[in-house]
Write a structure and sequence with these properties.
Number of strands: 7
Helix content: 25-40%
Number of helices: 6
Strand order of the largest sheet: 2-1-3-4-7-6-5
Strand content: 15-25%
Largest sheet: 7 strands, mixed
Order of helices and strands: HEHEEHEHEEEHH
Shape: globular
Distance between the termini: 25 Å
Length: about 220
Amino acid sequence: MGRTLKILLMNVISKFTFARIKYRSGNWDTDQRMPSNLLNSLVEYTTIPINYEEKVVDLASNEIFMYPFTYLSGHKLVQFNQQEKANFKKYVENGGFVFVDDCNHDIDGLFAKSFEAQISSLFGPTALKKIPNNHEIYRSFFEFEKGPPTTSFELNGWGDDLVHDYLKAVEFNGRIGVLYSNKDYGCEWDYDFRNKRFYAEDNTKFGVNIIVYAMGV
């Protein structure tokens, strides 16, 4: 069954789909303009064929196994039920990639503590580790020599008021299965893509790196 799922994950679709994970606890429907912004960046910078609409996928549904890239975010409690736990674990262990972004940008906040507890219960207390700032994900498309780019939300007086100079991940066989951020990239990229022209530097470029790495392009 594991081999079948892995083949399905890697070959089910020819176009990239931004799949957002819906889970029953907390608030999963954050940063609603962000997916279209990243999809626009993929069109602008890469030749990856895309589906232009975000897909919301229930974590408790087997539909999650149709998408090799998924996104999970929120501000509140993360407490998976038994089916959600089973699917999350099976999805990641069989080749799926989950980008998890803490909208509180706070290592001591409710989202961070509860999500990390879920990861610990699923994969063990040492599974989630800091990744080095020379990791492949920082050069998978654009070059980020200093590691993860800082967001404007990290020093805005809300959250832990710290710049997190690292990301964490759960890795399997040398590849990231869960990429975990306390930097609030979702809010950073949550604007109409047509306003990107007003930025001195396109701040969605790291999102391109994440997707390119996840898809193994």
